[in-house]
Write a structure and sequence with these properties.
Largest sheet: 5 strands, antiparallel
Strand order of the largest sheet: 1-10-11-12-13
Strand content: 35-45%
Radius of gyration: 23 Å
Structural class: alpha+beta
Helix content: 10-25%
Number of domains: 3
Shape: globular
Number of strands: 20
Distance between the termini: 49 Å
Length: 349
């Protein structure tokens, strides 16, 4: 919410100190409002770049070079997994390397939809993936690539559906040099419907450069993005409800299972997924802690190589239609996948 205050002073000297104090207080309150999470969700007043999917001519790029020399490209596995993806995806390389690495997007079809200001000197690129079947033509998973030092960082936006006529999804970006200073996605349709079957729109706001959050995301959880699960497990306030569910012995076992290298990401503007493996036993035991940014509820899972058994803990009952967004992202081991059925996490191999 941006507020413009227009004040006309015919004779500034005639204003009393009391009125000046009141005006100062009012301006201070406006500043507080402008810094609130809801204010962050407003679109920039003047965007450097704006793009809408499903509007205008369809374009797909196979490769994009960024202004820092980093590159991204699409790939197709054709039966032989590449970068941990058995289908199609997007790979990247830094400005100083000739080796590509997987960036996360993976599905039957992967596209780099747009790059700005060009495909050879980009500051931003937007990619999408979908399952490729007829049922998938109305929605895709969207990803934003931004410059990050000599490489790029990929930010998952979430699953976006084609909205009603005349109300397209709109990605907006403002830049200072090569850095994105603000970005807002308006009319984003994540699949939620009202009681008449109409898709409900929402907004995604780039917060602290760490990820795109839904309007309902609580800003205090954004600092967990990019952190190891231990950041949650060591925090007495954050972990309190989880300890109540697990008990001390199971909590210690969970902590040990996630004691090795790890990473985290923001999913669907809502979930902070923090994954790690067990120290000195990475190929055999791994898992994740996830925090619901809307409510603060948390869940934890531990998986073991070759086993279908899953250690599962959560501070609220898992809901298939909501929590599948993070459950299906958990690594299941070679040739396996994780799913959620009636609130129970299962591994298929």
């Amino acid at each position: 919410m941006f507020i413009t205050l227009k004040t006309r002073l015919a004779n500034p000297a005639s204003i009393s100190p009391m009125k000046i104090s009141a005006l100062s207080l009012f301006l201070h309150l406006l500043a507080v409002v402008a810094s609130s999470p809801s204010a962050l969700a407003e679109a920039p007043s003047k965007a450097d770049f704006t793009w809408s999917p499903n509007v205008g001519e369809y374009v797909s790029h196979g490769r994009v070079t960024f202004a820092n020399g980093a590159e991204i490209r699409t790939f197709r596995s054709d039966g032989t997994p590449q970068f941990g993806c058995e289908f199609s995806g997007v790979a990247a390389k830094t400005a100083t390397s000739n080796s590509f690495y997987g960036t996360g997007p993976c599905d039957a079809i992967a596209h780099i939809n747009v790059a700005w200001p060009s495909t050879t000197n980009a500051k931003v690129a937007i990619a999408s993936t979908n399952c490729g079947g007829t049922i998938c033509h109305t929605y895709s998973d969207y990803y934003v690539f931004l410059i990050n030092g000599s490489s790029v960082k990929v930010l998952q936006v979430g699953t976006g559906h084609a909205g009603p006529s005349g109300k397209p999804t709109k990605f907006t970006f403002t830049f200072s040099g090569n850095d994105a200073t603000s970005s807002v996605i308006t009319n984003f349709y994540s699949g939620e419907e009202n009681n008449l079957g109409d898709l409900l729109s929402s907004r995604r706001t780039l917060l602290k450069g760490k990820g795109y959050v839904h309007d309902s995301f609580r800003p205090q959880y954004i600092d967990l993005v990019g952190e190891h699960p231990e950041r949650f497990l060591e925090n007495e306030s954050l972990r309190a409800s989880m300890v109540t569910k697990t008990g001390p012995a199971n909590f210690r076992a969970l902590r040990a299972s996630l004691s090795g290298p790890g990473s985290s990401s923001l999913l669907n503007g809502r979930f902070v997924l923090m994954e790690a493996c067990q120290k000195h036993n990475c190929d055999s035991t791994w898992g994740a802690v996830v925090v619901d940014g809307f409510t603060g509820d948390a869940a934890a899972v531990v998986l073991r190589n070759g086993s279908k058994t899953v250690d599962q803990y959560s501070t609220r009952a898992l809901k298939d239609d909501i929590d599948h967004a993070w459950v299906e992202r958990i690594y299941a081991g070679e040739g396996g996948y994780v799913s959620l059925n009636k609130g129970i996490i299962k591994v298929s191999r």
